[in-house]
Amino acid sequence: MPDAVVVGAGPNGLAAAAVMARAGLSVEVFEASEAIGGGTRTTELMRPGHFHDVCSAVHPMAVASPFFRAFELDRRLELITPDLSYGSPLDGGRAALSFTSLERTAAGLGRDGAAYRRLMAPLVRHVSGIMDLTQNQLLRLPRSPFAAGIFGLRTLEQGTGLWNVRFREDAAPAMLSGVAAHAVSHLPSLAASGAGLMLGALGHAKGWPIPVGGSASIAGALARDIIDHGGLIHTGTPIDRLAELPRARATLLDVAPRGLLAMAGNAFPPRYRRALERFRYGNGSCKVDFILSGPVPWQAAELLDAGTVHVGGTRAELARAENDVSAGRHPEKPYVLVAQPSRFDPSRAPAGRHTLWTYCHVPAGSTVDMTEAVTAQLERFAPGFRDLVLESHAVTAAGLAEYNRNYVGGDFSAGTMDLRGLVQRPVVSPVPWRTPAQGVYLCSSSTPPGPGVTGMPGLHAARYALKDIFSLDVPDLGLQS
Fold it and tell me: Cα dist. 441→45, 124, 243, 458, 475 in Å?
């Protein structure tokens, strides 16, 4: 009989299992798919030798999340950090470019350079305090009130109708909105603004790294550590009810609230069940992968050196696209998130070939294939793109929901990203990872701090399981321990 069982071998489930195994407990992980990784899988999607990340591709949190810092992820695998973290193309061959250097970024933003520097410099200086604030439960006093204050004021500015007050041109606003749109939320909004400013500050403070070999290398590093500390990982083993698991003192579930209800609903009091039933999921995404005969021919040639490109045009155009999705419409000109991993990691494709990772936002549950709309947006800013496409593969929002039960309606974020969705995740509680059932903990992205490959929901759930059940502290997670 294991001490702890974990359901789901995504980054959060694996993080929880690694913490428990490091504490000297016997741990077993159960994954429904034949491959571990969840949001960190990499596969030969279309042709042999061409590797595509199935969900996440670029990882600003891999060197910034408190869990991955303690785990020393950057010492366990090779991360390539482009000097140009991300960019936003504009018509006429222009682009807003965000480098790891804040000064270099500001120098390229024309009349708005100084305003952008004033906006971002305090966030970059206090990025550690901001990470502490955003990666833990919001219902607590911040350890760094000053960092919380400057982050809150800037989030309020960029998340409301004041977002253009400090700017006179279109490049800096487009760049900020491109990052904020990661949140799949109405623009402007406080949740999107906070996410965008945090990711933007990380782009200057630490960069946006790309793992060599694909995102699966992150899951692989976690799995090796679990096994090295005596843990077991079972793949191809879906768990539909808690009764199907071996008896254990602690059960940690990397599942969405809908899955939690299906697995353990009768074990919960009515009030908690109702909260899970009312949990709100966000809109979805349509993912489109490409195999190209050459690199993307960006009209703004500097974008060739960007690990990530936010395609959609001006701030107004990006807001229109995201607000269409919020209203239940498919945008004619969608916001397209683009990653260019093979540009930096030659192991992703044979010589002379490139793999391109993209997705756009769509209404929840959409069955619409957005390949043509995505291609048109890329052709708009990279004339000749169509001629380079050898093959493409699309997964609709409905298809994403089938691929991963946590992606309800195609929602990568496993829950609506707004202020209510950040606090009520899935319930309003000082310890939202702990369920009312004895020994049962939720460790998915439906708990704080929410989406992203951070490992933090797993760390938080494991911390309380160790404390409540085993009277243990979180162990040292570093390589030498």
Answer: 34, 34, 15, 10, 19
d(CA 24, CA 21): 5
Measured distance CA(32)–CA(170) in Å, rounded: 46
Q: What is the pLDDT of residue 138?
A: 66
Write down the pLDDT at residue 479: 87
Q: Would you state the pLDDT for residue 423?
A: 82
Q: Are 143 and 123 in contact (CB under 8 A)?
A: no
**Predicted pLDDT of residue 139:** 61
Q: Which two tokens stand for residue 13?
A: 């489930």
Gap between the Cα atoms of 38 and 8, Å rounded? 8
Burial zone of 301 (CB within 10 Å; 0-12 exposed, 13-18 middle, 19+ buried): exposed
Q: Is the pTM of this model over 0.85?
A: yes
Instruction: Report the pLDDT value the prediction gives residue 265, as an integer from 0 to 100.
Output: 80
Residues of the chain with pLDDT under 70: 137-140, 481
Gap between the Cα atoms of 179 and 200, Å rounded: 7
Rounded distance between C-alpha atoms, residue 35 and residue 49, angstroms? 18
Q: What is the 8-class DSSP label of residue 268?
A: S
Burial class from Cβ neighbours inside 10 Å (0-12, 13-18, 19+) for residue 236 reads: exposed
> Vertex 447, ends 145 and 23: CA angle to 5°?
90
Helix, strand, or coil (residue 325): helix
pLDDT of residue 288: 98
Handedness of CA 100, 105, 106, 107 (dihedral sign): positive
The pLDDT value given to residue 157 = 97
Spatial distance between the Cα atoms of 328 and 150, rounded to a whole number of angstroms: 34
Q: How confident is the model at residue 481, as a pLDDT?
A: 67
Tell me the C-alpha distance between 114 and 224, whole Å. Answer: 46
Neighbouring C-alpha atoms within 13 Å toward the C-beta of 462: 31
DSSP code string of 195-227: HHHHHHHHHHHT---EETT-THHHHHHHHHHHH
How far apart CA 381 and CA 307 sit, in angstroms, is 16
Integer Cα distance of 285 and 4 in angstroms: 34
Phi and psi torsions of 204, nearest 5°: -85, -35
